[in-house]
Structures are given as structure tokens and as C-alpha cells.
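Pipeline run #58 for the internal structure catalog. This entry was flagged by the ingest filter as a single-chain record with no existing model, so it goes straight to prediction. Upstream metadata was stripped on purpose; only the residue string is passed forward. Reviewer on rotation: M.T. Logging verbosity set to normal.
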Amino acid sequence: MIDNRTAPFAVLILRLALGLLFLAHAGLKIFVFTPAGTAGFFASLGLPGWLAYVTIVWELAGAVALILGIWPRLAAIAVIPILLGAISSVHLAAGFFFTNPNGGWEFPGFWIVALIVLALSGDGALALRPTPTRK
């Protein structure tokens, strides 16, 4: 049974947590590794370097959309490809556990599940622009 009184606030907490994670992840690429360093890392994986800049912008846009509640269900789905890319290009070869060298896919996999839960649960409380739905 779902408690309809508190469920919107639970989704709000999930939405904020996921948005802050993406904000931190983008911040790591900007302030620690630098955009140029991130582009170099992408290139070392055989990916085009420009994809790093797209990824940073995508993470920032997704973070803001989730935190502010701007079409949050769609935002949750839209950022999943970033994590799938991280798993397939870096984390899958490292095994399951995130404590493995180069970090396994445990954490990004759980992050994807949380985004799917958000997309299925609704926009949550205090969404500035609720996701449009078909009637």
C-alpha cells in the first residue's frame, strides 16, 4: 500500500538526491579533472573527446531539471544513457563491485534503478514544471 500523503515527499527526496549526485558528478569533471582532462580521458577510451563536453552539459541540465522539478520523470529517463555509457565504457570491465580498481558497475547500476523508480513514481512534491502526461 502506498501512503499518498507522504509518497510525493519521498519522491521529492529521491529527486533531490539524484539531482545532487549528477551535480557532483559534473562538478568532478569541471573542477577536478577539468573539461579538457575529461575530454582526454574520453579519447583514451576510444570515444570522441567532444563527447565529454556534451556529457558535462547533459549532466548539469539533468541535475538542474531533477532538483527544480522541471519535467522530472523525463529528466530521469534522459540521464540514464550517461550512466549506461559509463558502465559500458569504464565500469563493466572492472566487475560488479564499485570498490574494485577502476570502479565496478555496482553504483551506476543502482543509480539507474533509482532513476527508473523516480520515472515510474511521479514528479514528487514541489515540482516547478510537472511532466506532461497523456489524458
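catalog note: The first helix runs from residue 7 to 32.
catalog note: The mean pLDDT is 96.
status: ready for reviewer M.T.
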